Write the structure tokens for this entry.
Amino acid sequence: MDNRKPTRRDASLALGAAFTTSIFTGQVKGANDRISVGFIGLGAMGSGNLNYAMKVPGFQPAALCDVYQPHLERAEATARRGGIEIKGTDDFRKILADKSIDAVCISTPDHWHAYMTVEACKAGKDVYVEKPASVYVDEGTKMVAAARKYRRVVQAGTMQRSGGYFKKAAELVKSGVLGKVTFCHTWQAGVTPKEGYGNPADTAEIPPGLNWDMWLGPAPKVPFNANRWGVKAATFPTFRYFWDYAGGAMTDWGVHLIDPLHQCFDEVMPTAINSQGGKLWVNDNRDTPDTLLATFEYPGFLASYESRTANPMLMFGQNAGTSIHGTEATLVVTRSGCWLIPNAKSEVQEQTYEKNEEMRQMNVPHWENWLACIKSREKPTSDIETCVRSSTVCILANLSLRHKTRLDWDEKNWTVKQNEVKQALKAKYRSPWKLEV
């Protein structure tokens, strides 16, 4: 039985313009031309993206930007080791104004994604932007609108879509081999120390080489706090655990775990979202919960997401993953493999895909896909609208938690039916920053 649902992209986001398979602009590079790329944000993710891009011969790293000088110097050294001499800047607007730059990679904290993407599109540059797409729901609509209006190829950093395991999962689900799917589950689990990331005090002392005001950008003006900034040698950046800049585990891990469901079921959106959670274990100064359970009513099936940071019990032998449960079989997919597990008395044959280095690759193939689409002007694997949809689902889960209410989703108008929550969908930018398409 085929469990697929029809796509509703034509009406989605209320943008008034369908996205075709080609967005030709008349400025396509020749087969032998290299695409010059500016890299904005060179922390953990940005450094990784710079390295991935340098493995794709069709890209030419041409500009570097970060508001923290040590990150900039590290990136300059990385480029130098690759035989590329680049002088960095701390102002992304210089890169956007440079007409020799064809495209930009945005790997900043989440609260900058939307503004920089829109401005890059307006500047005539194609974009690779990290996930989640945005912090607010309405930012996502403007990102898609900008991509369409200025005919830009915008690839999102949901790189799993280019990975072999996730492509195989989508193929199996779309084949109907699972039977009727009524339930899906996503999870990540581990153990965080009780002290979490600690409780550093706000301070007037800003680390040398950091432009704190530019780091904050459109977010509220606040004193420097080490955890809000989040750059530490021993941890992944902790800015993602503060509502001003991100959405905690829900938009960090959750996007990666829920996005495969959208890939498998033709980008369908849930009709209702409900979540509960809180800081039940750690006692640090983060805003976002350490424990969370979110449920989603999709047309035809239910889905759930759980985040556990005080219990490491594996599910299907995995500490994080996505499982899809049908009447004939269950499918489990992670970055380590893809498994089709028949139900009792099912005639479905068990299939296992793991320890396959080619299928494991995600990041470089994702960059290769972006390059091919920049040249062909076709829609990339993780076109910005797909990431906006997956990110919006996770943002709504956080809003359900924070407003302590179930949310009913109105896809046609890209809003919730609960009037008291509608204002929370809209971005609140600090002057002088304005998000305008």
